[in-house]
Every structure is written in structure tokens, then in C-alpha cells.
Amino acid sequence: MSENEIARQKVLEMARLSMLTDRISEVHIKNLQMYPFVFFENVTSVKIDYDLSNKLGVDTKEDTKNADIEYSIDSAKTNHLRVSYRLTLNEKSNDNLERRFAAIEESTRTLFWKQVSVEVYFNDKKVYGSKNV
Questions:
Q1: What is the mean pLDDT of the chain?
Q2: Rounded CA separation 82/109 (Å)
Q3: Which end of the chain has fewer beta carbons closer than 10 Å to its terminal beta carbon, N or C?
Q4: What's the pLDDT tens digit per position in 35-46?
Q5: For the range 53-62, what are the long-range contacts, defined as Cβ-Cβ under 8 Å and sequence gap of 24 or more?
Q6: What is the arrangement of strands in the sheet containing 125-129, beginning at the earlier edge strand?
């Protein structure tokens, strides 16, 4: 198994553990706090607000063929699966915002589940909200 595959399996196991315990790990928190500094310029502060509670009937199914874990989430109840990034930054120094939003959304969903909704606020103004999957 390659290093990438091992890392991917660890991320999947961490997501599963979060789902089962209704808590996110320190690694999750650190990643969520660092993503804005990776994807945006001139960020001076970051506040993260999230609701990833498992009161939604989240279930897992192991795919033995691909050695993966498949998550099943009732899409009608995914309103609570969200991560909000509240950033203080210089908006003028951030071009290609659609690519930046796509990158932070993809990274957040990779860390948890593809149904996680991502919101981004610049200086207390909502500038992005992901579409439901």
C-alpha cells in the first residue's frame, strides 16, 4: 500500500471515528484552522464554527473490494453538517475566489464527508455557501 493510500485510509478512519463519537479530533481542528491560511491571502484571523453532529442517521458500509468505507447520510437531514469559516482579511488581495472556495470546500469534505456544507465569511459578510451534494 502506498503512502498516499495509507494517509487516505487514516483520514477515512478519523472521519468514521468523528461520526461514531460525535466529536472531532485535534487533528481535524488544526486542519480546519489552517485551511484558510493555505487557500487565502492576507488572513489576519480565523474563527471556525461547525456542526457535525451524528444525530442524523449517518451509517457506514465497508466496501471490501476497494478497502474503503462508504458513508450513507440521509440528505434530507444534512442541514447540520456544516463548517463555517469566518475570516478577517484584505479582500482585494484575493483573486480567483471561485478556485479558492472550491479548494477549501474540497479539503473540508475530504476531511469529513462529501455532504458537509461549507460557508465562508469575509469580514462578517457571507461570500460563499456550498451547494448541497
A1: 82
A2: 10
A3: N
A4: 999 999 999 999
A5: 53/22, 53/80, 54/19, 54/20, 54/22, 55/22, 55/80, 56/80, 56/81, 58/19, 58/113, 60/16, 60/19
A6: 43-51, 82-89, 117-122, 125-129
